């Protein structure tokens, strides 16, 4: 199966899928190689607008200047194998930026761009049902779920933390004045160039922001995994972009690790949205509770008969 990942990323990954079909980046893709010849000078501002998020709030969307965004696209395409390798072992994510067309990792992979998935559903299928199954399997045997999302996720990402995620925080700090490019440092510089050189926040429109945010979360997930070993508490977790679910065996374990989890996110300057943060019994846990209630009721009835 032949899929042009260049076309997939540039043609379908520039404009957000929330825009109506009249907005198209087809011409942008046709001419993007010419845009690569434009000298990179000053950083550019994004075009900003809002879309409805729910009944009470709106979501900010930013579309970068194409002359700047094209260099970020070009770099991601040149590094897509390294990026793919970094995402391949992240079993906690339900929002991997890569989609695997075969049964095993070595088979063909493409970018999991929402707009491309919408246009080519026979090639890149929806992962909704698979994600539900994965969450069910992961939560099996765990009674409590600690659920939250990250507040203003893309707008809160500190761009220098991208390098922290790639080579480590201390190494990145030593690297500040050294002309030593790496994946994280290059992505930091390129994404800032699309967003007025701001270090706080990345544009919420293009698919490159999904790739960058997932790269950051890969590192955070590694630190979250370490909590289980450090505190000898058995738990599992999964996330879709910034929506996290942690599965615990007891409510005591939830409360013991809750603040530690928050501290890890805050160390990367990310905040948990406390208004959407809650603890509940998992579906399987609820089923178990209901079965116990039914069983006890049945035993009482039989005892009353005798």
From TrEMBL:
Q: Which InterPro entries match?
A: DNA/RNA_pol_sf, RT_dom
Q: Where is the Reverse transcriptase domain?
A: 114-277
| The organism's place on the tree of life at top rank | Bacteria
Protein name (record):
Reverse transcriptase domain-containing protein
